[in-house]
Sequence to fold (538 residues):
Amino acid sequence: ATTKHVVVNWDISHITVNRDDYNLRRAIGVNGKLPIPPVEATVGDTLELNVHNGLDRPTTIHAHGLFQTNNTHMDGPAMITQCGIPPGDSFTYHYTLEQAGSMWLHGHLAHEISDGLRAAFIIHDKPGAELYHYDKDYLLTFEDWFSTEFADRMYHTINPKEEFPPPKSYAYGLVNGVNGNITQTLNFEPGKTYRIRLVNMGDINSFQFSLPGHEMYVIEADGEYSVPYFTDGIDIGPAQRYSVLIKAHDTDAFNYYFNATMHANFISASPGLSPRVYTGKIEYSADAPYQDTRAFYERPDFKWLNDIEMHSASGHPAMVPNRKLYLEIGNNLYNTGQHLDHINNITFVMPNVPTLFTALSMGSLAMDPRVYGPQTNAVVLKYGDIVELTINNFSTLLHPFHRHGGTFQITEYGPAGSSTPAPESFQNITVQKSKGSPMRRDTISLTEFSYVKVVFQATAAVNFFHCHNSIHSAMGMDMVFIEGPDVLQKTLQIPNAMYEMCHKQGIPTIGNAAGNIGFDFTGLPNVPTIVKQTGDNQ
Fold:
C-alpha cells in the first residue's frame, strides 16, 4: 500500500460549550467545536497539522507518543522546543509516522489541554502488518471536565493568600467527548474479535476500565505492543493509553455494560462526587436483556493490570545502563508564600530562550547543563547513553510521569526509601522487578510512597520530562533532558518560521537560558528559596 500525505487543519479558538450536561463554560475548541475529532493515519504516512491560533494568547501542540526521530523541533512544548504560536498566526507541524499505536494531540502551553485542547491520534499498522488479528477497532477516550477554567483552579492553588491545599474541585467524566453515561453503544457480533483503544486524555483523574462477562487481553501500552496480557480491569492514569483485545461470545443472548470509574486518590470519597461511575453499552442484540454482572467485581481473584508484569512484544532484553540518575519529587513552601512542586528541590521555570535553541547556539558549552539555567532542571546526556532513572515519590499522591520523544523500559517498583516512615496503609509496598523483555511505555503512574526505575536510551533531541497532572506540572514538577546536543548541532536545521515566531514576540533565539553568552544569567526571574520542605499534599 502506498503511503499518504495526510493534511489536518486546526483553527484553535475559545468557544462556549456544555460538555458534561451541567455546566456552560468557556473552553478551547478546534474549528468551532468540542470534542475535537480523532486524527487517524497509517504507519509511513506524513501528517501535516496546520494550526491557526485564534486565541488571545500563544499556543503550541504536542504529539504525545511520537518518537520525533530527527524531528525534535516539532515536539511542541513551549519554550522547550519552540516559542508559542502568536495570537492570530499560523504554524504547520510536520510528522513522519514511524510507529503504530494509540497517541494523542494536545496543547502544551498554559495547560490549554485542561480546557479542551486535546484529541486522540490513532496511527494504524499498514494493512497486513498488524501484529494481532481483530475484526473491528473501537476507540474510547476519557476526560475529566471541570466547571471552571484551568487558570482559575491554578490561581486558587498558588495564591499565597489562600489556604493550601485549596478546596477540592470535582470534575465530571467524559467518554468520547460526552457525559460518560450517554456515550455511544459499542456493537458486538458473536464470534468476532474487537480491539478497544483506551485513551486517558484527562487532566488529573484516572479511569478504571472493565468489561464484565468477557476476557480482556492487553496488547498495547502507550503505542508499544505487548505480549497479550490477561486482566479484569485497567487503572488508566492521566496521559496513559492501552489497547485490549476482546473476543465476543458465540451467542447474542445477552448484552453487557462496560464500566469506567473516574477517580483521583487525593480526592476523598464523597457519594455522587468522587469517584464517579460511568457505564456504557456493549450490544449484541437490540432485543437481548443486559447481563447482571455485579458479582464480577466482588470476585476475590479480580485481577488489575500491573504494567511491570507485562512483556514487550519486541522481545528486547532489559538495557544495561551506563548512567544512573536519582530523582525525588515533592512539594515545598517557598519564600514567595507559595507551595510549589519540585524535582530534586528544583521548581521548574521556563527559560527566556527555548532550550533547543540554546542547545543549537552554544557550541561546546551546550554539553554543560549550567547554560540551560538554574530553574530548567536540565540534564545533559551523551548521544547513545543508556540511562536508568530512579524516581522516588514520598507523597500521598499519584504522579503520572511522561517522557517526550520516546519510551522507557519499566524495570522495578518498590517502596520509597525515606527517613520518614510511610503511613501504615502504604507500608505493604513490595519490590517488583521486570522479567524477560520489560514493557516499554512513555507515561508511568508513580503511586504513593513508592519508587520506580525506568531505563531509556538517549537520542539527539531535547525531551521534556514532567508530571502529566496539569496542576503539578504548572507548579514546577518538570525537567528537561538535553540528549546529544553536539549531534543535534550537526544534524538539525530549524525552519526559519520557528525563529520568526520567536522574534515576533521579542523572544531571543540564541544564547543561554537568559539569552546571554556564557554563564551570564542576567534577566532570568529570581529563583524562589525553600522555606520548608512539606512533602506533597496538593
Remarks:
- The helical segments are 150-158, 355-361, 470-474, 485-491, 496-504.
- Residues 106 and 318 are 31 Å apart (CA to CA).
- The radius of gyration is 23 Å.
- The chain has five helices and 33 strands.
